[in-house]
Amino acid sequence: SAKAAGTGVRVFGNDVDRDDAPGRLSLVSQLGSAIEAGELTVHYQPITDVRRGMTDRLEALVRWEHPTLGRIGPSDFVPMAEQTDLIGPLTARVIDEALRDCAGWIRDGHDVGVAINVSARVLHDLRFPVVLADAARLAQLPPSAITLEITENSVLREPGRAARVLAELRALGVRVSVDDFGTGFSSLSSLRDLPLDELKIDRRFVGAILEDTDDEIIVRTVVALASQMGLSTVAEGAETSAIADRLLELGCDVLQGFHLARPMPALAVGEWLTNRPRVVVLDPAPVGLSP
Ligand code: C2E
Ligand code: MG
Ligand code: MG
Ligand code: MG
To answer: Which parts of the sequence belong to the EAL domain (predicted)?
Structure first.
């Protein structure tokens, strides 16, 4: 995800060979018109409470269906959108589509919500709560069906202002989750002062929990911290059944990852929710988290 000043470097140089730089440059210049032309689509990945066997919500993940380059993933254009004013229209586009899609699933009888990734600029926009409330009204979706995923770093620019925006969002009934938790620069005191509902453990800690005891300790500690603070936990990157089982043992019940489902186009979601696979829990007893 976007790491502020670092992203320009990553997009224009660094891991990209020099010959590719002009291509990247023209990609930036195409993004504005691509948003207007409707080339952005939203895919959805289920976030499932495995113990209850329920899909709680789906995360909206943007893709760019480029007319000549094919599908481009968000890591290749969201960071550069965040460096410009384009993140505003991009986010508005994702919100409109995601709220309408979610309202449709609920109308079809599914008890699900939607999670939306929100960047720093948007989080510091004092108009954002009203814009989101309007979008929800238009889509006929209760705001309580919406979770916003923010990163630790996204509140750092002006923490007071971001906290005010978050408080207004939560007053609407929106839930707030800290994405990529543990990879940013927030302090525990700034976390304590923010109105939050959930910590989302980044998949770089999850991927190796079976082999790496340090990562396992991190997951265990985040789960304990969240529970002490009255927050819930989600783990992303539950790629295999073995990882999912271990996460359950560590006290993390709500999972997202390729083992449960990959991101899918909106049209596939209804069928997936109807025929959602039964998740087999091998060891239903959580291990004790106390020392
Ligand atoms: P994120 O919010 O942390 O989203 C989770 C990413 O992990 C997604 O990548 C998802 O496809 C991937 N993932 C989920 N489960 C697994 C797994 O089991 N294994 C592996 N290897 N990967 C898994 P994606 O869709 O490429 O998105 C990358 C990032 O782009 C997101 O990370 C988020 O930071 C950003 N992003 C995506 N859509 C939006 C958007 O609409 N707005 C903003 N501001 N950022 C977005
Ligand atoms: Mg996310
Ligand atoms: Mg994440
Ligand atoms: Mg992540």
So the answer is: 24-277
